[in-house]
């Protein structure tokens, strides 16, 4: 099946598999990191306007804080996922939105989510 946006970007979903067990203190061990490429995504920078006079403004009008991604219909996105987008690892912020089916065309819409850069 061709990508829904033929000139879209490929991003990579980073998801942990099931825990293989527990450590000596009873805490779950992290599962294996699974990388899944997702083709045909629309990636848009997401900007935030700093508070006027705030310490973040410093002669800037907006600050790019992450991306808004429109992934192909039916893409599995969980709030615990991370994505590699344009070489940067980002975390999903908030709940992914499923545009469902267009009332005009009957075609399935994209899965939209916000992804913030991982820092620290």
Detail the topology: elements first, then pairings:
Elements (H helix, E strand, L loop, with lengths): L8 E8 L16 E16 L14 E9 L10 E4 L2 E11 L12 E7 L3
Antiparallel strand pairs: 1-2, 1-4, 2-3, 3-6, 4-5, 5-6
Supply database-style keywords:
single chain, 120 residues, mainly beta, Thrombin, subunit H, six-stranded antiparallel barrel, 6 strands, 0% helix, globular
Would you summarize the structure shown here?
The protein is an all-beta fold. Helices cover 0% and strands 46% of the residues.
Please provide the count of β strands.
6
Largest sheet report = 6 strands, antiparallel, barrel
| CATH fold-level name | Thrombin, subunit H
The secondary-structure class comes to mainly beta
Q: What is the H/E order? A: EEEEEE
Written account of the structure:
There is one protein chain. This protein has no helices and six strands. It is globular and about 55 Å long. The chain has one domain: Beta Barrel (Thrombin, subunit H), CATH 2.40.10. With about 120 residues, it is mainly beta. It starts with 8 loop residues before the first strand and ends with a strand.
């Amino acid at each position: 099946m061709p990508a829904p946006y033929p000139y879209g970007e490929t991003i990579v979903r980073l998801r942990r598999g099931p825990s293989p067990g527990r450590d000596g203190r009873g805490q779950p061990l992290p599962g294996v990191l699974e990388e899944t490429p997702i083709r045909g995504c629309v990636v848009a920078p997401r900007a935030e306007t700093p508070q006027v006079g705030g310490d973040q403004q410093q002669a800037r009008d907006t600050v790019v804080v992450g991306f808004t991604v429109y992934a192909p219909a039916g893409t599995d996105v969980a709030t615990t996922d991370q994505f590699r987008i344009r070489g940067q690892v980002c975390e999903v912020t908030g709940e992914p939105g499923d545009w469902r089916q267009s009332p005009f065309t009957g075609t399935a819409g994209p899965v939209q989510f916000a992804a913030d850069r991982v820092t620290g």
